[in-house]
Amino acid sequence: MAVMISAILFAFAGCAEYEYTYERTNLVRITVASSPAYEASWESISVERGTDVELTLTFGEREIVFDSCDYSDYTAENGSAGVTVLTLKNVRFPTFLNIRTRLAEGGIYYDANGGRTIAGGEGFIEWLKPSTHLRVNTSSGVDSIEREGYTQIGWNTAVDGTGDSVCLGGRVTPPDGETLTTLYAEWAKWLDGDDFGYKEIDGGITLTSYYGDKSADPFVIPGEIDGKSVIGIDADFAAGLTAKTLILPSTMQYVSDKAFLLCRFDTLYMFDNIIRIDDKCFAGTHFKTLRINAVLKPRYLSTSEPAEFSDKMDRLMLHADEKKMVFFAGCSMSYGLDSAYMQETFPDYTVIDMGTMGGTNADMQLDCITPFLGEGDIFVHAPEQASRFQLFDDMNCDSNFFILCEGNPDLVSYVDLSKVFGVLGAFNKYNADRLLAAGGEWTDDNDYHNEYGDVVIPRGVISEDVKHGEDDYTYMSDYVTEGSFSRMCDYYDAISARGAEVLFSYAPVNYNGLPDEAVAGREWLTFAEKTESRLAGRGYPVISDIGDYLMNGRYFYDTDYHLNETGRDIRTRNLADDIKEYLENK
Q1: Rounded to an integer, what distance in angstroms lies between the CA atom of residue 563 and that of residue 568?
Q2: 8: three-class secondary structure by DSSP
Q3: At residue 206, does pLDDT exceed 80?
Q4: Alpha-carbon distance 203 to 206, whole Å?
Q5: Shortest CA distance to 278 belongs to which of 244, 252, 255?
Q6: Is 161 left (phi over 0), alpha (psi -120 to 50) or beta?
């Protein structure tokens, strides 16, 4: 469209007045850089200023794929193998468009499976970039595909949903080379919107009541009713529902306390962009399974040691069919094990250091680990002697567990929530805390660990035997009870049932950090006596002498249980000798 602009010039004295016109175009021109790597649907085009422009790129070689372009605001949809559709948003100025390509390392084709992509296609491809993780995170789907009247609850390896289910953002094993893995959207149909009472609030509606069938299963909350987004559920919304599965939509921001009363749910699907949810929302209900679909990008992968748990699980999963030696505890294991030495000492086993964080639930971690142990494996457990969680004396869910699983939200679904308490409240705290942190990417990683899972940050040696923590760190014999060790041995039983052998050892403790009364009373001996008698009653061997792991302060780093490199080497050799002696004598 052209705009005519007139200008009137007035002559100086004696000159005639005259008028002239000039034309300013409202069209802008876009030119695409040519390349033998792709064929563009157009090379140069003029479009109306302020419009969106679509460009289709067809790649002649399948292993060459679109990476990015230098336009500031665009979307890219890989609709089929070798084809990428770019949409340049709000083009206002003449543009020379540079396209960056790269070699693909395989890819995932996401089949909308009854839905449509936002651009109207039947699916889309994500070509994989080099990753710092052994397995790759899936697309969230929320901003990519849609299906009217349905909520996407995950991906599946089978079109009919009978294959392996993966939550949105969950990890899958990447395909080899240039191949494509296909995942199919899993959908849950909304209940009829006419069966819900609601009130309008800023940003959408909140549900106040339910008039429909109380036996409807799954119980799928609509994401939209009468054209309005469902963002909340009020107190006293529903009671006595008999459904086993509750599915909340991605639009849901909060669920009020006592929203659901005396229901029979055992599985909850929800999205991690929910702002508030708590166990008090479900009075009389204790979920067994929680499936979290990721909408938000991770926060902790590049900054937190415990977030390494997802990568440790990747290694465990990928070696599930091999004979393994798996070491488990909190961070005293990741700081206190030289897995390369263990691998050299026990070459018939794949060594994996699963030690992560003693200050969160060991039981929930073992729910993740146990399914991937098998015949001939050796599981070495050396729990921190001052951790209620490691000694199974505290069964309340800790919010840090969700940091462990942030890199792969599917891990949460492995946990049997019926054995722990306060899960949703812990998630609520975790989610509130991480929303204050800077955003990240699924490919984020840190340099704290090696491929085995050992901490590798430099930890200098000191020459003095000193206390490293402000608080006393000691042997908590009071945590060694019939109940706590019964729960621990129940996990040992589950591991043994899979054909693995359980060996118990002791975590390192700084002798110079013990309180005076613990030294005077030789508390480590009391701890060992109670521990060994309870384990003997269930038939599990203690392979170590507790005194070998009571070490001087010069061997510790920044706490009275994090070993420095010299301490790590001493502890590793002691533990290797204990294992060898046990295997030789059994």
Answers
A1: 6
A2: strand
A3: yes
A4: 10
A5: 255
A6: left
Q: How far apart, in whole angstroms, are the C-alpha atoms of residue 475 and residue 255?
A: 42
At 372, phi and psi to the nearest 5?
-105, 10
Q: How far apart are CA 275 and CA 21, in angstroms?
A: 59
Which tokens go with 467? Answer: 């206390």
Q: Is the dihedral of CA 433, 368, 396, 168 positive or negative?
A: positive
Instruction: Report yes or no: 532 and 542 within 8 Å, Cβ to Cβ.
Output: yes
Coil vs helix vs strand at 417 = helix
Helices and strands (DSSP H and E) totals, the chain: 10, 38
Which pTM does this prediction carry? 0.85
Say if CB 539 and CB 558 are below 8 A apart: no
pLDDT at 544 over 90: yes
Q: Average pLDDT, stretch 103-116?
A: 87
Mind listing the pLDDT tens digit for each residue in 56-71?
Answer: 998 866 667 888 899 9
Closest by CA position to 271, among listed 301, 246, 291, 298 = 291
pLDDT band at 2 (very low <50, low <70, confident <90, very high): very low
Backbone φ and ψ for 312, nearest 5 degrees, come out as -60, -40
Start-to-end CA span in the chain (Å): 89
57's enclosing H/E stretch is: strand 51-59
DSSP 153: E
Q: Residue 529 and residue 385: Cα distance in Å, rounded? A: 13
Full DSSP string of 435-490? TTSPP--TT---SSB-TTS-B-S-----SS-----SS-----GGG--HHHHHHHHH
CA distance 355 to 334: 5
Single-letter amino acid code for the residue at 457: I
Residue 34 CB neighbour total at 10 angstroms: 11
> 155 with 185: CB under 8 angstroms?
yes
Parallel, antiparallel or unpaired: strands 245-247 and 267-271:
parallel
Using DSSP bridges, classify how beta strands 116-117 and 18-25 pair: parallel, antiparallel or unpaired: unpaired
Distance (Å, whole) CA 149 – CA 98 = 40
Q: 511 is written with which tokens?
A: 């002798």
Cα–Cα distances (Å) from 287 to 246, 258, 263, in that order, read 10, 15, 10
Per DSSP, the three-state class of 61 is coil
Name residue 81's amino acid: A
Q: Which of 255, 261, 292 is nearest to 275 (CA)?
A: 255
Query: Residue 9 in contact with residue 19, Cβ under 8 Å?
Result: yes
Tokens of 2: 């052209």
